[in-house]
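Q: Sequence in, structure out?
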Amino acid sequence: QGYQGATGYQGRMGFQGFRGSTGAQGYTGNQGFQGFNGAQGFQGYTGLTGNQGFNGAQGFQGATGPQGAMGAQGYQGATGVQGALGAQGYKGAQGYQGATGVQGATGAQGYKGAQGYQGATGVQGATGAQGYKGVQGYQGAMGYQGPAGVQGYQGQKGAQGPAAITTRTATGTGTATVFCPAGDLATGGGAAITVGTGALVRNAPIGGGGFPPASNPTGWQAISSVSTDTVGVVVICTP
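A: Exactly. Output:
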C-alpha cells in the first residue's frame, strides 16, 4: 500500500440542485386545493473521503439541495351564475271553518263583595216652592139647638131691638138657591152636598145687583162640581 497522502484540500461546495419545474397551471373551475409544499430536496451526499495517499483533492461537500419551490396556488374558480328566481307558488285554497266549540260551563258565582263605605251626606236641597192655596173648606152644617138655658133675672127694659132673624133653606140638584122674605137682607148662610161625591164650587150670597153682590144681598146660592149631586143651602135674614 502506498504512503498516506497529505490531507487533501477541502472540496468545493457542490452545485445547487436544479429547481423543480413549475407544475402545469390548473384548469379554471372549482378552486384548486392548496398546492402541496414542494418536497425538500435531498441532501447532497457527503463527498467520499479521498483515499489516503497523495494529496488527493478532497471531495466536494455536496451542497444542501435547495428547498423545492412551493407550487403555485390554483386560480380561484369563478363564482357560478345565480339561478333564476323560482315562480311564486299558487295561493292555497282557504281551509274549512272549524266547528263552533262547545259553550263552556257557567263559572261559579263570585264571592259577595265587601259593603262599600257610606257616602258623604248630600248637600241639603233647596227649599221647595210654596204650595198652592188650598180650596176653602165646606161650611159646616148648622148645629143642633142647645137646651134652653136657665131663666135669667128680669132685666131692665131695653131699647127697642132689631126685627127678629129668620132662616130659610132649600135643596136642589147640582145648584141650590134660597132668598130672604121680601124686604129682608141676607146676613149669612151656608151650604153642603147632602148626596153625591162632588165639591162645592160656589157657596156665597147673591142678589143686590150681581154675583158676588156689590151690596145688600138678598139670598144664598151653592153649586156642586157634579151636576147630579143634591145640594142643600141655608140663608140667614134680617128685616
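Strands lie at 166-173, 175-179, 185-195, 200-206, 219-224, 230-238.
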